[in-house]
Write the structure tokens for this entry.
Amino acid sequence: MKYTPLSTDILAVLKAIVGEKNLITDADRLQPYSHDEVANPAYHHMPEALALPESTEQAAAIVKLANERLFPIIPRGAGTGLACGAVPIYGGLVVSLEKMNRILEINGDALYAVVEAGVRTSDLQAAAEKEGLFYAGDPCSSDSCCIGGNIATNAGGNRAVKYGTTRHQVQDITVVNPLGEIVRLGSRLKKQSTGYCLDQLIIGSEGTLGIITAATVRLLPKSPYMLDILAVFKSADDALNTVQQILKSGIKPTCIEFIDTITLRSIEKFLQTTVPDSESGNPLIIELEADSEDELDDKTVRLDELCTAGGAVNVLAADSERIWKVRKSYSESIRSESRIVATEDIVVPVDRELDTLHFILTQAEKYNLTTRIAAHAGDGNIHLNILKLRDDDYDEWKDRTDRNQAELFTYVYCAGGRLSGEHGIGYKRRHLMERFADPVELSMMRAVKKALDPNNVLNPGKIFTLDD
Ligand SMILES: Cc1cc2nc3c(=O)[nH]c(=O)nc-3n(C[C@H](O)[C@H](O)[C@H](O)COP(=O)(O)OP(=O)(O)OC[C@H]3O[C@@H](n4cnc5c(N)ncnc54)[C@H](O)[C@@H]3O)c2cc1C
């Protein structure tokens, strides 16, 4: 696909749409928009310009212009993505929603919030909490990512075991479609059978089918009683077998997170802290919620029994702030060890998680890979980071990780898994889509993209390429 460079006259029209202060062409200011959280410079590309719309109408006018003049648009939230979805691989115009960051309504009676796409996830969480309510979406990046980005990637995170992923929190979205038309998709209805579920199609489409400018999201009454339990197991086998038992037990935890021993020690070193029994332990962090003290006590006792029967060497009430700091520092601690990392976001059925972990570790030995592993274990979502060490030759390391990746995903697909549990495909994994996605499924996805975005202006080259 040939795109038109952003010429002086296109930039003048863009300036007229968003105002002079909201159109950036200065290279220094554009540089942060050339990448997301993938640090490897091989994935970085400079945009030609950046637009910061302040309304849905401005975003729509930009997309209309892109169709008239044929330039690519790359929607962007906070740029915390891990799949290069917001990277302008063909240059063009990055459209950042960062200035559309107002919480428009919190409705405690009907239990919903209306937010603009650029609202920081933790700001929504805090605003809900102030009203005694609760927003269930909680990616580990919640302090920096945006609701629009969460919706575009169908972000998961820590509470998906009980509450599902971002798509389960969304009631409706305001979208600028790829032709520049404004549409509100979805509704606050409890049920409807009224044609295609287009809101759910846009959710998780990584900016390829629409720019999300606002959303209505579900709020819940906040559970009055909560407890984080730290259960430390001697082996990963014991820990992951116990995950199965917990899910079967009816205790309904909010989350079950797993960190392997080596990774735990690297996080401890990074944070200069210690976690009980970390010398040889494989911890599960399990969060419980309850409506009464008795219910919480009951769940805690049953969980303790399950973990102890499963081989836990220690089960204790955790200091929530401290233990979540450890879990949420997973990515940062890895970055402190190496800037070049192969990051996988494997997802398998939960009952295949343990054998998949065995496969990962066998492969690591076979290819001499330095791994860091944490998992949203209650969701079957394993984060595998493979570090390039200082002495590794880049090409040789890349060759080893590529060969490992091909074998790993062959295994994962045989286990009924997929390429990404929550980070998305973006640009970084699109070659794997070609290789592993069902060809019919892929051709249906391409047909949808072509039908909705005939000029291929919205985030082109992400998830897959079009073959013409
Ligand atoms: C430390 C760390 C921890 C993380 N933990 C988690 C986790 O627990 N769970 C999880 O799911 N992810 C996690 N992530 C990944 C990332 O934070 C999520 O993918 C997040 O949803 C991205 O939001 P963002 O606003 O930064 O989007 P961006 O990175 O800006 O964009 C991501 C994708 O969404 C598209 N997009 C963004 N905004 C819009 C919009 N308004 N309309 C249309 N398309 C849009 C972009 O084009 C791109 O394809 C983590 C990342 C880091 C760095």
Summary: The first strand starts at residue 23 and ends at 24. The radius of gyration is 22 Å. The mean pLDDT is 96.
